[in-house]
Design goal:
Length: 328
Amino acid sequence: MFKSLVINKDEKQGYHTEVKELNETELQDGDVLINVLYSTINYKDALAISGKAPVVRRFPMIPGIDLVGVVEQCDNNKFNVGEHVLLNGYGVGEKYLGGLSQKARINSEFLIPLPKDITPFNAMAIGTAGYTAMLCVMALEKQGITPDSGSILVTGATGGVGSFAIRILAELGYSITASTGSSEQAAYLKQLGANDIIDRTELSAAGKPLMKERWAAAIDSVGSTTLANVCASIKYGGCVAACGLAQGMDFPATVAPFILRGIALLGIDSVMRSQQDRLDAWQRLAQTQLADKISDISSTVGLHEAITTANKLLAGDVTGRVVVDVNA
């Protein structure tokens, strides 16, 4: 028997989440059995745990879109028993049972080897947020954005993606403007590497089709009106990597920034990304000095604290990353 966070939906209790004891027969079919070491609580996990959005596709469900652990059994020759493996996305925690559990049975096609220069804990402190942030940075680089291009705007700056985006960009030598609704976190953002900080209200209300050219590029995890205003404020030939929808899924913009300033909007999906893209991003992450800043970006909770933490995250009361020690 092992412990898992389980979401269920029935007529008696409605939508509810609790820590339960399961056995291996209750895990879905997959060809790799993993002893999970750590998982995380991402924004999507918080939505699933709380039921605030229809993230979960079937019940019962174990949430957790990230996990790192040790292979206990592999039905093919892709991984060796005792090998450390890493998972981000692929619908795990939505369609397939996820990582907030002491054991997981996962399709081997969803897994990659844990990079040798990243510890299991640091892999989850980085998690989908850091992996997504690196995908965003790589997308900007492919568009020709360099430190000499000008300041890079990062919205949702105190969140997981924002925090890692700032840290990665700073290490690469970029000048960074951080947009946040948490003015009391200014010291935290400066410590990560932000050069300037603006209040998110500058971007969250309806703006003009074209606004003053302020930033060479941006990484946006907010969406909605914020993303529209960001696009309207990008300098000629710049670009925006869009990876989130914290403000909303809508995009109340015009074509003006695209046809008059030649900017590009780059959609960043981390869930179904190819194996090669994943390996490339994690190899880049392994080459950074993020491990030196993990304590500034992450906090740790046990499995029993996951529900409370998810609600805090949705309320905006969590800064950076939350690692879940499933065995604590």
